[in-house]
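Obj.: predict assembly geometry.
Materials: sequence records (below).
Method: joint structure prediction, all chains together.
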Amino acid sequence: MWPIGELYTAGLLIYAIAALAGLSAYFRKTSSAWIASLLCCASLVAAALEFIASVAALVAGMEFNWTLPSGIPFVHYGVRLDPLSAYFNLALSLLAACVAVFSIGYLKHGPAHKRPGLFCCFLNLMLLALTLVFTASNVIFFLICWELVVVTSYFLVVTDHESQESREGGMLYILMSRAGTGMMYVGFLLLATAAGSMEFQALHGSGEKLAPGVGAAAFLLLFFGFGVKAGIIPLHIWLPAAHPAAPSNVSALMSGVVIKTGIYGMARVFFDFYGVTPVWAGMLVLVAGVLSALLGVLYALMEHDLKRLLAFHSIENIGIILMGFGSALLFRSFGHPQLAALALVAGLFHTLNHGVFKCLLFLGAGSVLQGAKTRNMEEMGGLIRRMPWTAVFFLIGAIAISGLPPLNGFVSEWFTYQGLLAGFGATPTLTRMAFPIAGALLALTAALAATCFVKAFGIAFLALPRSENAEHASESPISMRAGMAMLAAACVALGLGATWFVPVFAPITRHAFGVQITEQLVAGNGLLLSAGSVHNGSVSPFMLALALVGLSAVPLALWFAHGRKSPRSIGPTWDCGLPGLTAANEYTATAFSKPLRMIFGALFRPRREIQAEFDVSPYYPTAIRFESEIQPAFETHVYEPLREGILAIAARARKIQTGSIHAYLAYIFVTLILLLIFGVRG
Amino acid sequence: MIEQALSIAIHIVLVLLLSPLVTGFNRVFKARVQARRGPGLFQPYRDLYKLLRKGMVIPNTASWIFTATPFVLFVTTLLASLLIPIVTAQAPMSLFGGVLAVVYLLALGRFFLALGGLDTGSSFGGLGSSREMTISAIAEPALMLAVFAVAIGAGSTNLSTVAQSALGQSWRFLAPSQMLAFAALFIVLIAETGRIPVDNPATHLELTMIHEAMILEYSGPYLALIEWAAFIKQLVLMTLLVNVFFPFGLSPSWSPGAVLFSLVLFIVKLFLLSVVVALVEVTNAKMRLFRVPELLAIGFVLSALALVSTFLFQG
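Observations (raw structure tokens):
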């Protein structure tokens, strides 16, 4: 018997103590590096405790809860570690542990090294708040913790507040979050009114008690409210602004975990609070998923800022997760709980997988940023020689995020495909066409993601260095490499060991749909993953990996029979007869994505400007200036008019802001009277 | 267990030996149609043998990615071929991954090949990588939708199950959904194997080449591995077409007589398909790069129609 509750609570306390210690270090103006290292180790210990507690809760199928009174009616500070909470807490603590290890080395140099105490305070506070968000069992307590995450992560994003980019990104983040939280409040209150309680356990199935119109309104409010946090298109604009501006270890946690709070909220609402939803609800989630995935990856392709590129990929992967959730909702609407469980497992598994490889990639980007002093891929190049370890880890992350076998991204995308495939036969009418079309667009998304990561890895790490800084880049310290190595190992383990990991989802699907999935998804003595049954399709990442190793005997045999003896020499790359190959001859990131920029020109509306100066003939220019940009569609067509509208309304509203204290007192008085009338009548 | 290992070994030998033959036949037939004499049926074997024994030049800008690429490409393509039924209805490793695994294993090989192109630092490599990744990305939805049409018809993504279910209904390829899906996959085959009108495997002209640009810096044994992998990939995709849509003759067991018969029939089917490919190649001119998406869009529409007709005619 595991002391789950004790481990969990001890983890929370260590986070809290570390946060307080960081704060006191800040006020005592201690800025020595060992404080930061110590506090990161504290986060590591706390994360490890949380990890053990979550794993034990999932494996033993145990639940655990405690409640503290708040002195306010309806509100309790209650936590509950049920299977869904435990699963998200597992993802959080795994990533937090790796980021903590990475941070030990990173904080010595990164933008946070000026105020390490304050940074560690906010970091631990955010981890504490995230743990509570995933485990809170009371609506109001949940929302309090939610706000705490927003505030602490805002301060972490603006760590480098001297830069305008950070400040603007942080501001956009907090503004969008406010809008999302507003919607969530209303949605939760509607649900809580129907249930007559603020406790999550009482809210189970309460969506069905609402009148259809109100239920739909609550669903929409909660979906879009959580959607802001998750970064679904078109509510995503804060994400590519805020994630790159943050220090890289914070970006990793933002993309790996913080946006997953939105996914957690959706999972909680869709599969716990709501019973059977109408068909349009599932369709909405599926379409939002497809749109986010495709547009996310298309915008990512156009980026040559490494961290912005990764931020857009977060939007893409959130889309893939929502494809799983959307199909699960549809299957439940049409009365196929088994298939709903399969699709839900796809979405949840991808949530963890995305967390792991995106965290790895952001940490890799942080390592590159520190080594090569730039985020612009056009100024990198050749880093594989100067930062060999970072290169290997980044490559593993790139393969995983592209959904290529045998790593973890492949497994969850495989489940997503199988869910979509089953949808065609399981749904009536033309609804069924939505599934294969979504599958085809998922295939496009995955292939574009692979293209994007060939670009990212190829341009940043391969060939010749493109700048002075890249030429003198150096490898990161051991702790940063260790953090990345842990995540890379997790990518491999979750891929090869998927058959052993999938049973973890059994308690979640049992709770949501009353379905036991382990026997359906794992077959062949635990070697095969199957889609409902082996007949429908099966895959074994472990055996594929084993076969890849085994089959390498064939080319190696050919090599030893012939190639080894053949003379080999090292020579210069063909430079078209020019005097030596330089970085100027290399393909750039912009050039690499040009065909796709042209093909999807209707979306990007690319604009380019070329100015050439010449002396004698235009064919012999002395200087060329080239400018190329794409139009950010949502910013220009949605948010710009919205911003202007809000400003116009604000200008009108200014008229009642007279600046006279008497007028304000009168407003307060009138409001009081109105409230009293309202109260008496109600 | 031993039977299993033996069948895998036979499968590997078959794939390795057969794949250059298909390319050889394609070249000979194309030459004859163009009233040339052509290089001879067994020229690809001679090329591979020659390349394996030649010396090679490694670019001084290249890293370990350049060295690893030929091996990764070769192994992933070979593994993909083991998931597909070739002469027996039961492919030796089909339980370990269905058609999705085939598509993604090929994608893994392509991922490394494109990195290998970028690793040399030459603009040709980058150009080839960029175009290869672009074309394969926009071919992907058509491919996957056609795969979906087939998998939904058979109720499985496992290729052996698909072939067995098709074996039961020999005339199923006449159903409109099957014919449309076949047409869509044929377009994808042209694009993925770098045939005219999408790419020209016989040219080294910078404006037109895609695949060849990517592997420009490879030589000797490494080039042999890459070429051989390209042959195998072509065999994999062609087998997918002939054995999924026209599975008759696939042997239900490993009895020598049935296997031999099925092998002969398989080679005939392959040659017939490669005649069609060659005819497409000689009667078309290469397209401009930015017309290729239109061709692939046709493939996408065809496979969408295949699904609609599944919906209409099979309920």
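Conclusions so far: Residues 83 and 96 of chain B are 8 Å apart (CA to CA).
To do: check interface contacts against the pulldown list.
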